[in-house]
């Protein structure tokens, strides 16, 4: 090795020129150092080499400083092709490298670099609320993974994102575990409308409850959140207040729920999900957020799912009488979906756990709502009365002062402004009544 080293040394020829009688004793490298240093300096200073090196360093560092902002300014940059629809079975689900922030926060961002792109899971992201949330998260620049079993959701709700490399869709039932590494988890998956949860009450319980066999939805997502150190947001509901004895409802109200009624699988399921969420927070230090959502409406709601706004709008478009259950004097408040999405994102981004009421405090009787629908769609629409359903709450109206104060959030869109925004979507889908058949 020593021999080889000597031969390849640049000093080799000069060393050979020294007569053997004058050959100095072997000297360690350190003694040669000053000479080779001065030679290196000479080499650098000759022919302006140093100047060229400095200019090269300057150009390189300028490129690396400017590169992120240049790529942001150039949205037309071609995107790598990916399949139109990505559906990844559990064993193929992508696990990504640990993203550093174990607390799911955005972390400190150096000036001029911009907000760190988050990786976000939305369970139930192909549903009504979920798909609007996905739109907004992607528009903000985050990576979004939708998990949905299409029980009530539709691929059409998120189809416009197929081909976007920041979007992934996984057909998966949240009652089964899944492993992904993300920063935030919005947990919306749940059969949420009366028609669906009454149709399959045991499944609803499965999505929500805490016992080993029928609990796995919320529990799985909380377990995942704990494991990867993410932040979890539960979309609970105003149904946790049951048929309320306090009006309007504040978050401090514990509710008045029939535990054995036809609606209990949903109401009690969400109450248990809230309990689990808080227990994971208290017991395991998991970062959680709880939103209690009041009636929300907008484009992409399921047709004929038994919710009053979608029922009235679909009936008016089909020229059918609007069905009012009971005397029509029970009250509800109606929030446009974009207001809710803003509230959910404000809550996820805040340092507050909740629960927070997210709803529009405007209060309408069912008859008043029917009137607004008539004025918006068809003034000649008739109203038809039917006997009321069991355990239908008499009144509902959120007190949103907590969200106003701590999240700086309040709804912006009134019922009269919001209703027309969902009508054209319903008209198109009703014209194509085969919706849903064949795309599941
Ligand atoms: N829209 C409202 O007025 C309202 C009010 C209160 C609470 N919420 C809550 O908001 C969330 C979203 O509601 P929505 O109105 O968008 O309902 P939705 O039915 O349109 O969406 C629910 C989504 O969850 C999916 N899903 C159901 N069970 C699943 C499972 N086991 N695994 C994977 N995916 C599953 C469905 O396919 C659907 O895409 C729900 O948790 C609901 O309880 C909604």
TrEMBL record:
Q: Which residues form the NAD(P)-binding domain?
A: 122-420
Give the species.
Actinidia chinensis var. chinensis (Chinese soft-hair kiwi)
Chain positions covered by the region annotation Disordered: 1-33
Q: Where in the cell is it found?
A: Golgi apparatus, Golgi stack membrane
Q: What does the record give under GO molecular function? A: NAD+ binding; UDP-glucuronate decarboxylase activity
Protein name, please?
A: UDP-glucuronate decarboxylase
Write down the required cofactor(s).
Answer: NAD(+)
Q: InterPro entries in the record, alphabetically?
A: NAD(P)-bd_dom, NAD(P)-bd_dom_sf, UXS-like
Query: What topology does the record note for this protein and the membrane?
Result: Single-pass type II membrane protein
């Amino acid at each position: 090795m020593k021999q080889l080293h000597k031969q390849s040394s640049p000093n080799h020829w000069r060393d050979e020129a020294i007569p053997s009688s004058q050959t100095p004793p072997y000297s360690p490298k350190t003694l040669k150092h000053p000479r080779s240093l001065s030679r290196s300096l000479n080499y650098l200073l000759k022919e302006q080499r140093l100047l060229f090196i400095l200019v090269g360093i300057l150009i390189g560092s300028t490129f690396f400083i400017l590169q992120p902002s240049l790529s942001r300014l150039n949205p037309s940059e071609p995107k790598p092709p990916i399949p139109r629809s990505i559906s990844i079975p559990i064993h193929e689900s992508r696990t990504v490298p640990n993203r550093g922030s174990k607390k799911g926060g955005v972390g400190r961002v150096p000036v001029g670099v911009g907000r760190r792109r988050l990786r976000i899971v939305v369970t139930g992201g192909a549903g009504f609320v979920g798909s609007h949330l996905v739109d907004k998260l992607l528009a903000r620049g985050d990576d979004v993974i939708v998990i949905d079993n299409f029980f009530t959701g539709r691929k059409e709700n998120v189809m416009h994102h197929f081909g976007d490399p920041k979007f992934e869709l996984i057909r998966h039932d949240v009652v089964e575990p899944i492993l992904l590494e993300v920063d935030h988890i919005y947990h919306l998956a749940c059969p949420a409308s009366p028609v669906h949860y009454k149709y399959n009450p045991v499944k609803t319980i499965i999505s929500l409850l805490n016992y080993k066999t029928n609990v796995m939805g919320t529990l799985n997502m909380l377990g995942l959140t704990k494991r990867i150190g993410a932040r979890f947001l539960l979309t609970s509901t105003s149904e946790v207040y049951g048929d309320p004895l306090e009006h309007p409802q504040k978050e401090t109200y514990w509710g008045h729920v029939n535990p054995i009624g036809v609606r209990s699988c949903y109401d009690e399921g969400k109450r248990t999900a809230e309990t689990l969420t808080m227990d994971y927070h208290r017991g395991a230090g998991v970062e959680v957020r709880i939103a209690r959502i009041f009636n929300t409406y907008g484009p992409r709601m399921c047709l004929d799912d038994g919710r009053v706004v979608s029922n009235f709008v679909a009936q008016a478009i089909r020229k059918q009488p609007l069905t009012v259950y009971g005397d029509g004097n029970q009250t509800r408040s109606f929030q446009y979906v974009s207001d809710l999405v803003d509230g959910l994102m404000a809550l996820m981004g805040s340092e507050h756990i909740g629960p927070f009421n997210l709803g529009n405090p405007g209060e309408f009787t069912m008859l008043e709502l029917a009137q607004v629908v008539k004025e918006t769609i068809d003034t000649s629409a008739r109203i038809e009365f039917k006997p009321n359903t069991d355990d239908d709450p008499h009144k509902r109206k959120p007190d949103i002062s907590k969200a106003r104060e701590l999240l700086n959030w309040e709804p912006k869109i009134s019922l009269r402004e919001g209703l027309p925004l969902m009508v054209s979507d319903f008209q198109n889908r009703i014209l194509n009544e085969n919706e849903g058949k064949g795309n599941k």
